[in-house]
Amino acid sequence: MASFAIEARNLTKSFRDVRAVDDLTILVEEGDVVALLGPNGAGKTTTLMMLLGIIEPDVGTVRLLDRPLPEERSAALVQTNFTATYVSLPGDLRVKHYLWVFADAYGVPRSRAGEALELLRVPHLYDKKTAHLSSGQRTLVGLAKAMMNRPRLLVLDEPTASLDPEVGREVRGVLLEEQRREGFTILMTSHNMDEIERMCRRVIFLARGRAVADGAPSEIAARYGRGDLEETFVSIAQEARR
User: Fold this and answer.
1) Dihedral (C-alpha) 46, 3, 1, 67: value to the nearest 10 degrees?
2) Model confidence at 200, in pLDDT bands (50, 70, 90)?
3) Are residues 64 and 96 in the same domain?
4) Which of 25, 80, 91, 133 could form a disulfide with 153 if both were Cys (CB 3.0 to 4.6 A apart)?
5) Percentage of residues in the chain with pLDDT exceeding 90?
6) pLDDT of amino acid 2
7) What's the total number of domains in the chain?
8) Residue 1: pLDDT band by 50, 70, 90 thresholds?
9) DSSP H helical ranges for the chain
């Protein structure tokens, strides 16, 4: 019997008269690497916020690492982590102090801060002020934060969007190597279809808050009669606008 890292059933969420997510069910097995894709406005961010318990669905249920939300959210999030390029860093802290706050919150040794930066090959950022970091460096610090508690579930929203191609490739390699070694689950969003094809074993396409395709990248591209995932993305986006 499958063990699910994410078990979300019949999620529905509206904001005034706009239905952002519409009767959406997502099941992600432990140890899988899955992408949640779709054009802007498809409901991806709203879905992620519900899966993390930041907002509650109007209808539907969420279990994270076999714990129901919102009742056992704190226990679930101890074994979960999240990062996104749009999450800002405080400007008046050094990187180490910023990471120590999260080490204390997760109940892990502060030494994990340096270890996570070393893992991402940016140990030189340890003593830097966050205000002096480039956008790419801020992204790497966010990823270091997300790795410090060695999560069973890692949620990544556009994890390499602000990184140059070489650094982005290195980060993808690190994430995949760690995932294979530790066996944790990854759920991610990205508009970089090459990144998705390289990292993810399964993709879920959303359009207008509903899942319209679900399967391996190559299978979905073949189903839509397209050569690759990028062409498939464009096709789904065009259909959603009609």
Assistant:
1) -80
2) very high
3) no
4) 80
5) 79
6) 66
7) 2
8) low
9) 44-51, 73-77, 95-106, 111-119, 135-147, 165-182, 193-199, 217-223, 229-241
pLDDT digit string, tens, across residues 81-99:
999 888 888 878 999 999 9
Residue 191: CATH number of its domain? 3.40.50.300
User: CA–CA distance from 34 to each of 2, 76, 100, 159, 204 (Å)?
Assistant: 15, 19, 29, 14, 8
Same domain (yes/no): 157, 235: yes
What does each C-alpha distance from 15 to 54, 67, 128 come to in angstroms? 15, 26, 40
pLDDT digits (tens, 9 = 90+) for 91-146: 789 999 999 999 999 999 999 999 999 999 999 999 999 999 999 999 999 999 99
Calpha distance 32→15 (Å, rounded): 31
Tell me the CB-side half-sphere exposure of residue 18, using CA atoms within 13 A. Answer: 8
For the chain, the residue count is 242
**Which residues sit opposite 37 in a β-bridge?**
205
What would the two tokens of residue 88 be?
A: 């800002």
As a whole number of angstroms, the distance between CA 240 and CA 95 comes to: 42
